[in-house]
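Board notes (copied after class):
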Amino acid sequence: MSGGLIALLIVVGLVVIVGVWLWATYNALVTLRNRVDEAWSDITVQLKRRADLIPNLVEIVKGYAAHEKGVFESVTQARSALMSASTPAEAGQAENLVSGALKSLFAVAEAYPQLQASQNFLKLQSDLVDAEDKIQAARRFYNGGVREYNTKLQMFPTNLIAGAFRFTERDFFEVEDASAISEPPRIQF
């Protein structure tokens, strides 16, 4: 073989290797981005589920505590904020509102023994705790995906591909007051 043919084969081999690397890196970034999108979708499903429980809970408590109008308004406003949140940052702020409003609602409920014995109230309360647990798990899964995706975007030489194809970092789902949502609202009878 002549020297020119060997050089051509080496160049072609390098081009193939770089092409396969580019292809694999791009596909890995797309996969991670889609996992993050899927995880965010899971969070929104759980937030919607919880938001759907709140009006039923409010109606039951209203029947027993009609004079607690301010509490009901704050719960309704918090639910609206949660339903309109479209980004992790907005959802984090809405989480603070919902958590505080639910604590107030359950504080009102504690003053009514008949309400505490209501099967409907107990079922909704159980469903709400379940929803809170699922939201927390979905948040952890989402933040893990964001961490993995953002790390991959920042690592060299993947960051060159990410920049060229306009992959952007994602925000973590964080709340301003993490202690407010670290546990489901405590209900004591």
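Comment from the instructor: The chain has a mean pLDDT of 85. Residues 3-64 form the longest helix (62 residues).
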